[in-house]
Structures are given as C-alpha cells and as structure tokens.
Amino acid sequence: MNAVWIVLPILTLLMFELGLTLEIKDFKLFRQRPYPIIAGLIGQIILLPVLAFALGYLFHLEPLFFIGLVLIACSPGGSSSNIFSMIAKGDVALSVSLTAFSSIITLFTIPVIMEFATQVAGDNSGMIIHLPVGSLIVQNLLLMLLPIVTGILTKRFCPKAAERIHKVLSKVAFPALILLASVFFIQHHETIAAQIGRLGLCITMMILLAMGGGYIISWLMKLNRKEQRTLIIEIGMQNAAQSIAIASSPFIFNNDVIAIPAIIYALMMNIILLVYVGIVKRR
Q1: C-beta separation of 95 from 85 below 8 A
Q2: Integer CA distances (angstroms), 233 to 20, 54, 102, 177, 270, in order
Q3: Domains and CATH numbers, the chain
Q4: What is the pTM of this model?
Q5: How many CA within 13 A on the CB side of residue 139?
Q6: What does the alpha-carbon distance between residue 273 and residue 230 come to, in Å, rounded to a whole number?
Q7: Could you read off the pLDDT of 86-106 as tens digits, one per residue?
Q8: What b/e string do you get for 30-47 counting C-beta neighbours within 10 Å, with b at 16 or more?
Q9: What is the C-alpha separation between 26 and 14, in angstroms, rounded?
Q10: How far is residue 34 from each of residues 70, 92, 169, 236, measured CA to CA in Å?
C-alpha cells in the first residue's frame, strides 16, 4: 500500500481542522502586539532552518535525511501547538495567531529553503536531487491553504456547523497523526531502527535548541511569561504531517526515506513538550 494516499487526506483534514480554529481577528493581533508575533516568526522562519542546516552538517547526515531534517524545520506549527499552549497556561491568542501567520508565510518560504537544501545535499554527495518547485507550491496551495481558508469561511458563515465539525475533528486529528506515523514506522522499521541513534539524537537536539532559542528570543524582546511559554512551544513544535506529505508525495520528492526524520520528530516532539508542560504546570 502506498502510504501517500493516507498522508494527503490526513494532512488536508488537519489543515481544515486548523482553519476551524482560526478567525480573521487572529491575523489582526499583529497590529496590537507586533513584538511577540515578530519574535515567533523569527524563531520559526529563520532560527529553525539555520539549526537544521547546522545540525545536519554536525551529525554528517546522509543527503536524504539532511533534506528531511530541513523540511521539518521549514514546516509551520499546527493546531496541536495551540493545545499545548493552553495546557501550559501560555498565551493562546498569540499561539493561534502565530499558527495562522506561519501557516501562510511558510507556503512561500518552504520552496525557497528546500530548493537551497536540495542543492547543498546534492553538491556534498554528488547525488542529483530534484525538487519540482512548481509542484510543491501547487500542493501546498491545494492541501494547506485551501483547507485552511475553507475552515475559516465555514466558521465565519456557518458557526454552529463549524463548532460541531470541530468537536469531531479535534478528537480525530491526533489519532490520525498517530496512524500516519505508525504506517510509516511499520513500512520502514528496519531503517528507523538502524538510524534512531544518530538521527534521533540530532532531532532531539534540534527540538531542545529550538525551544531554548524561543526562550532567548522572548527574553531579548522582554516578553511576559505567558508569551515566553507560547514561543517556546510554537518554535519547538512543527507540522510533522506536512513534512511527511511533501516527502512522500508522488508530485514532489516521492521518497519515503526523506519522511523518516519527520516520523522520529513527531515522537520526540510530543515526549519533550509533554515533559516541558508538566514542569511548567508544577511551577
């Protein structure tokens, strides 16, 4: 069974569910509180890709794993980060707004950064790694932007129906992501088992450094504690489903090996953030 036919519907479902949590006012928070938004976007759009490139070199990752690591760093945070922010008593409004902005902005930054990443990986390995930028943009528009906008419009014009749908999808979203990770894990368990040591350590370091970077950025911008917690979560939590969809899509990379870092990332990200939320709640 080709796992991509599970990946793409799940990604579309997750993006529609994300749209159901957003409102037009979420994009207006920038006018009221620009500094937390700017801080979060700096962490997601600039810091994370830099960390991925640096760690990929430091750990001497194979070209396909290197591309997969950078792909994770380019992906925006999903709606799960909003839930983690709420549990950690962070600034949920800020979390939602950052998710909204990053989901739109990364539609255009992912092709640029990934084009550079494939060139670097190809030059260092001698492999020819082709990225169809046009197909990547089209897939992002169809599987991400369109479902998000549809969700926003549904909430705007059919609020009662949107609320009922959201109650169902919010319960389905996480199990769907687990199903997605399980399918890939079963299909590639030998490769994952062989690479979990070095690749797992590399990904764990990226998550921890990203969270640490979120703390430093929020401290430098003198944000309050709730904003600080939110940035730590938003910068540390990326959309693994999107990374898997881009890696395995027959229209883009069509390579499940590139998705393996995202599978490991999904596991480590949830463990680390659950530990972080537990520490914050105790405090």
Answers
A1: yes
A2: 21, 21, 14, 18, 11
A3: 3-282 (1.20.1530.20)
A4: 0.85
A5: 26
A6: 12
A7: 788 888 888 888 888 888 888
A8: beeeeebbebbbbbbbeb
A9: 18
A10: 27, 15, 31, 20
Cα separation, 47 vs 45, whole angstroms? 6
Residue labelled with tokens 């949830």: 270
Nearest CA-CA partner of 195 in 184, 187, 203, 206:
203
Cα 236 from Cα 273, distance rounded (Å): 8
pLDDT in tens, 187-222: 777 777 877 888 999 999 999 999 999 999 999 998
Show the tokens assigned to 66: 């290197």
Structure tokens at 112: 């640029």
CA distance 279 to 200: 23
Residue type, 6: I
CA 55 to centroid of chain Cα atoms: 18
